[in-house]
Amino acid sequence: MLTAAIALAAAQAAAADYGNGANWLCRPGRQDACTVPLDATVIAPDGTRTVERFVPATDPTFDCFYVYPTVSTDDALNSDLVIDEAERRVAQIQAARFRSVCRVYAPMYRQVTLKALRAAMTGQPVTADLALAYNDVKAAFGDYIKRDNKGRGVVLIGHSQGARMVMMLLAGEFDGKPAAMKQLISAMPIGGNVELTAGQRTGALKSIPTCANATDTGCLVGYVSFRATVPPPAASRFARAAQPGMRVACVNPAAPGGGEMPLDAYLPTTTLLGTTQAIQWSKDSTPVTTPFVKLPGMISGECVERDGANYLSITLNPDPADPRTDDIAGDVMIGSRRLDDWGLHLVDMNLAMGDLVKLADLQASAWAINRVP
Which residues does UniProt assign to the signal peptide (predicted)? Predict the structure, then answer.
């Protein structure tokens, strides 16, 4: 399936020019969508608040290549390459924190838009061009390798549509290609169905298994997240494999070897899609003025397989008697109706953001030690 999609992309789409800096959402050495405020308000169980300041790495030794999810509000089925607030916002929420450990490269690409997604969800025929989106991502990665990589290790990161782009990039540019695999620290296609052969750590990607521990390299970390109290329904779009004999990958970045662990969550103080509706983090409605909030001990996660679904099960540990909120945002909503088949899709990455960043750094250190010239 991935190979066919890549062939289609090569045949149909002409890529954007990534020698043009305007086609990059984030690049090192400039002020852009990733050099934004990232401080987090930490709210302890007793309601005490402190501010955790964000500190970027001064001389990072590896790179992160990030592909953003479906966020474009352009009034077309494929987006243009103009950076809008939606792309800036998602870079802040999902990509910029990786600057504490790596150089972040994030291209603009002519993605399938929210308009196209909504049409597809309501059963309308959609002619959005996935090939156009992928060819842009492929061209951007090629430009990065040619101009910037210089033999450095790289972590590939993507969410939702971005995860699909990362999987296509892995299939076309890395899988079965030893020279390229030497540069791959790991891949993090989050919030998409990465299908594996049942009982195996590989699937369509024959030479790229899921990561089994925090120092595995050349492997992938993938999961979709659902509330423990709202597991994937029978017809869920996520967590259930489309093909018989397959399962959806789940690697908990806080515990790649398995088991339930507290998650180092950095929750955005406005929603992923950029609405400005206030989220109440304390029962007294005291506002949070930083871009992120942390609730130590509130959120834990475990990869589970239940009723044919594989997912990161998210458990909240609220105390009705303490001053903190007893719930979090992140569900996909239509008005007051929750779309249970999407799980906690809007905060897939944020639920374990601190763990993802830490894992990337650990894997990079292991890659540097074990690197084969």
Answer: 1-15
Instruction: In whole angstroms, give the CA distance from residue 201 to residue 95.
Output: 26
Work out the end-to-end distance of the chain between its first and last CA atoms, rounded to an integer number of angstroms.
Answer: 33
Q: How many residues does the chain have?
A: 373
Distance of alpha carbon 356 from alpha carbon 194, whole angstroms: 17
Dump the DSSP string for 198-248. TTSS-BSSTT-PBP-STT--SEE----EEETTSPPPTT-SSSS-SSTTEEE
Structure tokens at 98: 């990786």
Contact 41, 289 (CB under 8 A): yes
Q: What are phi and psi of 79, to 5 degrees?
A: -75, 170
**Quick one: which of 274, 1, 272 has its CA closest to 134?**
1
Helix, strand, coil abundance in the chain, percent, nearest 5: 25, 20, 50
Confidence grade of residue 371 (pLDDT, cut at 50, 70, 90) = confident
Choice between 276 and 349, residue whose per-residue pLDDT is larger: 349
- Phi/psi for 120 (5° steps) reads -65, -40
Rg (CA), the chain: 20
Burial of residue 147 (CB within 10 Å: 0-12, 13-18, 19+) is exposed
Burial 191-214 (b: 16+ CB within 10 A, else e): bbbbbbeeeebbbbbeebbbbeeb
Number of Cα atoms under 13 Å in the Cβ half of residue 339: 14
Q: Which two tokens stand for residue 50?
A: 């402190």
Residue type, 28: P
What is the pTM assigned to this prediction? Answer: 0.94
Tokens found for residue 149: 């990589």
User: Are the beta carbons of 222 and 190 closer than 8 angstroms?
Assistant: yes
